[in-house]
Amino acid sequence: MRTIGLNGEWSLFYYPQEERRIQHPNELAVSGLQPIACSVPGNVELDLQAAGELPDPRIGGNIGLLRRYETHEWWYQRRFTGDEEAAAGAKTELLFHGVDCFATYWLDGNELGRSENQFIEHRFDITGMLEPGREHVLTVRLKPAVAEALSQTVDPSSFALPVNYEQLRVRKAAHSFGWDIFGRAVTAGLWRSVEIVVSDPNEFVDIYPVTVSAGERQAELRLFYNLRIRPSLLLPSAASGGGGLQLRFRGACGNSIFAHTLPVRFAAGWAEFVVDDPKLWWPRGYGEPHLYDMTAELLHDGKVLAVHRQQVGIRTLELVRTDVATLERPGQFLFKANGVPILIKGTNWVPTDQFHSRGAGNYDRAIALAADLNCNMLRSWGGGVYEDHAFFDLCDREGILVWQDFAMACAMYPQDQEFQDTIRREATSVVRKLRRHPSLAVWCGDNECDEMYALRGLDPNRNVLTRKVLKEVVFQCDPYRPYVPSSPYISPEAYAMKSADALPERHLWGVRDYFKSVFYTEAKAPFAGEMGYHGCPGLSSMERFLDAPFVWPWKDNPQWIAHATDPVSTPESMYRFRVQLMADQINELFGEYPDEPLPFILASQISQAEAKKYFIERVRLRKWERTGVLWWNLLDGWPQFSDAVVDYYGVRKLAYHYIRRVQQPVCIMVDEPENWAVKVKAGNDSLRPARGKFRVWDADSGETLLSGVYDVEANGLAELGAIRAPRSAQRMLLIEWECGGVSYGNHYLLGSPGFSLERYNGWLKAIAGLPKAFDADGIGR
C-alpha cells in the first residue's frame, strides 16, 4: 500500500446557506465567491481566525461569535496532479480520516459520494479516475450541522439536555453543541488527514492479536489475519519444491522472540502458537508495558509478496463485575491483568481542544502528564471523539489502560432502525480500527445515558443501542474484550431496586459540597467512574482568556460564567451555578469568600487538591473493597474554570502535585479519625513487596508522631500504627517514606472546617516537593 498526502493548504468558500443554492462545483466556480486559504487537517473556525475574519474564540466572550456561522456552508477545494502509479490501474481510493460532518465529495465535478459522521473514516474508490500529469480538482461540501439537525425527526422516547438537543441524530462530538466543560462551538472542517491510497494486489488488511493465556514461563498467542490476495495464489504451487502460499510471523521484545509459519488456504484465519518466556504487557505500576515488534510476511514459493509491521502486547485483561453492589451483597467492578487484580487510579479524558484538528498535536504532552501522575487508566469520555492510533500508541508504550466510551452522552438517543444502522456502521468502523491495541481495556456503550432513562422513569435496559446493537458489534469484531452497556450501567436488577447505591460503578457528583460529606464517605460503589472538584486556574492563565475588566471580581461576572462553562449564557441557564459552586467550596473549607484574586485562587486550588487527594486515598485505604477511581479530569480542552488539574495552557494546579504524590505505587496515607485516633497505612499497588523507613510528624511543632519501618506485601495494604487525633484538632500531619532508595512525601489535613487560609499557606511551605509558586503571593504567575 502506498499513500499520497493531500494535506496542507486548500481553498475555502463559505456563505450562509439560506442566501445561495449552490449544488455543484461548477456553480461554485461562477458564484463570485472569493475563497480564503485554509488548512487540512483543520477547522473552518481556525481558518477564519487566521484570515482575520474572526477574533480568537477562546478569549473573553468571543465564543458567542461562532453562532452566526452555524448556518453557513463550507466548500473545500484542492488541486493536485495525477500520479503515474495511481493511474496505472491499481485499486485507488480517496481516504478522509475525519470529516466534520455532513459532506458531499466530487472529483473533477463527478460526485463520489456522501457522508454524515465525524467520527469515522470515509473511503471512495477512484480507480482509473486519475491521469498522470493532469491537474485534478477535489471538492468537498460541508452542510451546516444545525440545519441538518433541524430537518430530522425526534420522538418522545428521545431526550437531551436543554442546551444540546441537536446532538441526538447528528454524529459529531456531543460537546460541540455546548456542555458544562466546553463552550458551544458547532465546528466544521476536514479535521483529520486526507490522502490517496494505492493498494497492492496482495496486502494485509488487518491483524488482530489475542492473548489466550499469559504466565511467566509461557503465553499462548492467537493472531487473526485478514488478507487481500489474488485468487490464483490459492491454487497449488507449480514451482518445483515450492511451499505455496504461507504466512510468517516473527516478533521480538528484547531477548524474547517468537516465530511461526503456517500455510494459507483462505484470505482470513487464525495463527495460534506458544511464546516461551514471554515479556508481558502490564498496566502502569504493576510492571513494564512490554511490546513486541512484530513483522508479518505473506510468502509465495518463498518470495515475499506483502509485509505488515505492528507492535503486539501479550496480556490478558478481564473485567469482573456484578449487576448490583449492596451491603448485603457486596459487588465487584474489578479489572485483572494477566490474572492479577489491578487497583485503578486514573482520570477521565476529554478532547484536548474543542477544535479537534488541534487535538492530535497535544497527545505527547497530555499522555506524558498522565504517566507522570502514575495514572494506569484513562476513560475516553463519550461526549468527545474517538482518539486516533497515535493516542493509543502512547498509551500502549506507557502502560495506560483505556476505557473507551462509544460516542453518546447524557441523552436518550433515537431507537429507530435507521439510527440503529448508523450506530452499527460507526461502531464497526471504530472497533475494527482500534482493537489491536493492548492498552484498550473495555468498550462502554455510552456516558450516563442509563441515568437519563432512569431519571425520566424509563427502563434503560430497553435501550436497543447499548443492549443489542453495540453489544453485537463488540462480539462480532472484538469478542475477547469486555463490554459494559453504560457508565454507570443500571442492570435490570439495579433498576428494579431504584437505588443508585446498588450500582457497582458510579459517577459521584451529588451537590458537590464538602468533599468529606456523607455523600462521599458513605458511597458504596466499588468503582467511581467519575468524581471531581473545582479548582480555579492561575492568575496568569486567567489574564490570557479573560478581557482585562473581567479578571476580577468573581461574582456576577459574565466572562467567568461563560468560561465556567455556560454554553448559552442566559439567566435561566442550568450551568450558571458553577462559579458560585467554586466559591462555596472555598467557603466550606476556609469559612470565607476571599475578596482578592490571589487568595481566592489559592483557596480554590487548595480545596480542589485536598478533595481529589482524599478521593484517591479513600479508594487506596479500602483496597479491595474499593477497586478504582477515575477522577475528573486531567486537562482542559478550552480555557475555563473547571475540575481539570492542568489548565488549557498547560499550567499545573496544586491538585496535580497532590495527586502525583498519592498515586505513587507505594504510598503511606492517614485514614479518617475513629475512636480518638487516625490509622496510618501503607498501600502497595505493585507486584513487589515494599519495605523501608517512614516518619509522620506535626507540621507546626515538628514533633514525630509515628515512625519506624513499613513492610507491605505485593499488591497489598498494611496498617502501620495509630496517632491520637481528636476531631476538634486542626493540624497538618506530614509524612515521609523511603522506597527503593528514593524519598517520597504525603500529608494529611486533620480536623473539620473552617481552616485558616493563612495557616494553611504556611503549611504549604512545609510540604516537601511542591513548586514554590504555590503560596498566596505568587500562585499562578
Structural account:
- Strand 20 (333-337) and strand 21 (340-342) form a beta hairpin.
- It is built from 16 helices and 37 strands.
- The protein is globular.
- It has 4 domains: 2-198, Jelly Rolls (Sandwich), CATH 2.60.120; 203-312, Immunoglobulins (Immunoglobulin-like, Sandwich); 318-507, Glycosidases (TIM Barrel, Alpha-Beta Barrel), CATH 3.20.20.80; 666-750, Immunoglobulins (Immunoglobulin-like, Sandwich).
- It is α+β, with helices and mostly antiparallel strands.
- Helix 6 (417-434) runs parallel beside helix 8 and helix 14 runs parallel beside helix 15.
- The chain has an 8-stranded parallel β-sheet with strand order 27-26-24-23-22-30-29-28, with helices on one face.
- It starts with a strand and ends in a 15-residue tail after the last helix.
Short description:
By secondary structure, this protein is of the alpha+beta class. The chain is built from 16 helices and 37 strands. An 8-stranded parallel β-sheet has the order 27-26-24-23-22-30-29-28, with helices on one face.
Give the N-to-C terminal Cα separation.
51 Å
CATH superfamily of the largest domain: Galactose-binding domain-like
Overall shape: globular
Rg to the nearest angstrom? 28 Å
CATH top-level class of the largest domain: Mainly Beta
Beta-strand proportion: 25-35%
